[in-house]
Amino acid sequence: MDPTVSVVMRVFNAERFLREAAESVLAQTYADFELLAINDGSTDASVEIMRSYRDPRVRIVTQANGGKIAAAARGLAEARGRYVAILDADDRSAPARLERQVAYLDAHPGTVLVGSALGIIDERSARVGTRRYPADDAAIRRAITIYNPLGHSSLMYRRDAARAAGGYDPRYVLEDWDLSLRLLQLGKAANLPDVLSEYRVRTDSVDARLIKVVLRGTIAARALAHRAYGFPRSLRSLAVDAGQRALCLAPAALVNWLCFKVFYRRA
Fold first, then answer.
1. Poorest-confidence range of 90-94, 162-166, 216-220?
2. What is the CA angle 193-237-194, rounded to 5?
3. Which of 95, 140, 155, 234 is deepest in the core (most CB within 10 A)?
């Protein structure tokens, strides 16, 4: 019998934090799930770590390294559950996450995806902040033309809706934002107010190239929301767009510091 939930975990050379991530799933209060680890060509001990769990709910799918978008697409294609929960291999889920999100989707058949607030943790697994998102569908739709109001490692969505929407598109750097835009064409979204997932950020190193790629990706996603999906422009979205274009010219360390100041509250 297929599980209710497929927890999709993208795994690439994730040995440093993988046990924390996997064990946060295996400790869930809701038991009817599979932990679907997409091994994206890892060359470290990631596969051995996943194989060390004798829990029959753990399923490993290995592919040649294709990057995080290819791994997400493979996870959606392989998922057996009617709901798909996302958790990357360096993040963590709260024990009641699946229970809370399954209950919400069961009770709200018109909702296609549900997220939550995100705790922000560092490389030592210490909480350094909290990312809070708008709760209801109307507020999410207003925000999605300005920033992505749905944290990917907090998301649970209906598998068939995501497949009907076309899944993860490799043309876009911010594949989760793009998929959320398309899912919103099929139904409603919500965010639960509690911290049900923790997202890891690195404070010991800054990748200048990655920061600039993400900035350019947000600009592209915002344009996509307007042009392809009909979300209206606002003065705020135009202002944020102009500010991010300016940040593309700024030093990476400054951009990283500003992101923490603007988007994360201290825990």
1. 216-220
2. 5
3. 155
Name 126's Cβ contacts closer than 8 Å, sequence gap at least 6. Answer: none
Three-state SS string across 110-178, please?
CEEEEEEEEEEECCCCCEEEEECCCCCHHHHHHHCCCCCCCCHHHCEEEHHHHHHCCCCCCCCCCHHHH
Distance CA 209, CA 162 (A): 30
Q: What is the pLDDT of residues 109-131, one digit of tens each?
A: 999 999 999 999 988 899 988 99
H or E stretch covering 214: helix 208-227
pLDDT digits (tens, 9 = 90+) for 86-98: 999 999 999 999 9
Instruction: Give the bridge partners for 190, in sequence order.
Output: 114
Q: Model-level pTM?
A: 0.90
* Nearest-angstrom CA–CA distance, 178 and 228: 11
Reference 190, options 233, 149, 232; nearest CA is 149
The CATH number assigned to the domain with range 5-200 reads 3.90.550.10
The pair of structure tokens assigned to 38 is: 């997409």
Backbone angles phi, psi at 121, to 5 degrees: -120, 155
Listed in order, the ranges of the chain carrying CATH 3.90.550.10 are 5-200
